Amino acid sequence: MAYIRKNQARLTSAEKRRFVNALLELKRKGEYDEFVRTHITYYVSDGGSGLRVAHMAPSFLPWHRRFLLEFERALQRVDPAVSVPYWDWTVDRTPGASLWGGGFMGGNGRRSDRQVMTGPFARTNGVWVIKEGEADGDFLMRDFGRPRNPIELPTKAQLAWAMNDPVYDTPPWDSTSTEGYRNKLEGWTSATGNDRWRNHNRVHRWVGGHMLGGASVNDPVFWLNHAFVDLLWDRWQARHPRSAPYLPERQPKAGHGPQHGRIAARYEAMPPWDAKPDELLGHRGIYRYA
């Protein structure tokens, strides 16, 4: 029977507590940091060499769907009633949103060093110690809205700009693709300043601190952001039922640009699981969104 992923704003106090407790137990056991290391390993930029599956590539959505599933299964080994909630950042747009309460994700970092001082993931509680990725300390950092260079969370209009594109992805299949749903949702552009970041990327920039870069999994809000991104992929498929659910169908030919061998086509394996994008185009029977 499919379990439910809920909007974080509709979680009961008991549901929030169970989710947080499962997170803390994974961290205590060392399993959480394995997920951080996986994301760091597969966060490969356009300028790097080799296969690119987690970001700046068509497989951004199916790769993170599988990543979320693996994490959710780990949580459920601790507490079978737990699932990953989602954060609708077009609605809950301020530091005062319930998401950032002391009993859930905790609040912003302090001004001096961006260290999170409230909530269950504060270093002062002695449990959430940052061990993976470069940082100025072993404490969780956030910098809501980046006051030194202010940025806002994505708006409904900015999200609609992505959702209305009927084509899943387009050449050159990387961060420079100017058309296609995948990159419009992932959020890479050639603009300057804060206009450079759209949708998913803008959320990472707004939270700041550890949410910047490959080690972003260190902040548990990473999962709530990506659960919403996963939900949006569902909505996009429902809105464009005649569109190919994943592109490219086949690997770009050698000699036809730099992406040959650097991306996963629809029926090609994505490490580290050898799962194919085609196997992750839906999740019926596993979970559903409420």
Keywords for this entry:
di-copper center containing domain from catechol oxidase, single chain, 2% strand, mainly alpha, 290 residues, 31% helix, 7 helices
Question: How do you describe this structure in short?
Answer:
By secondary structure, the chain is mainly α.
What features would you describe in this structure?
The chain has 290 residues and is an all-alpha fold. The protein has one domain: di-copper center containing domain from catechol oxidase, CATH 1.10.1280.10. Helix content is 31%, strand content 2%. It has a two-stranded parallel sheet with strand order 1-2. Helix 1 packs across helix 3 and helix 3 crosses helix 7 (221-239). The chain is globular, with a radius of gyration of 18 Å.
Work out the count of structural domains.
1
Shape: globular
| Low-pLDDT segments | none
Helix content: 25-40%
Within the largest sheet, what's the order of strands?
1-2
Oligomer status: single chain
Tell me, rounded to a whole number, the average pLDDT.
Answer: 95
CATH-scheme architecture: Orthogonal Bundle
Radius of gyration: 18 Å
Question: Mind telling me the CATH superfamily name?
Answer: Di-copper center containing domain from catechol oxidase
Per DSSP E runs of 2 or more residues, the count of β-strands stands at 2
SSE string: EHHHHHHHE
Beta percentage is under 5%
What characterizes the major β-sheet? 2 strands, parallel
Instruction: Quote the CATH topology.
Output: di-copper center containing domain from catechol oxidase
Q: Please state the structural category.
A: mainly alpha
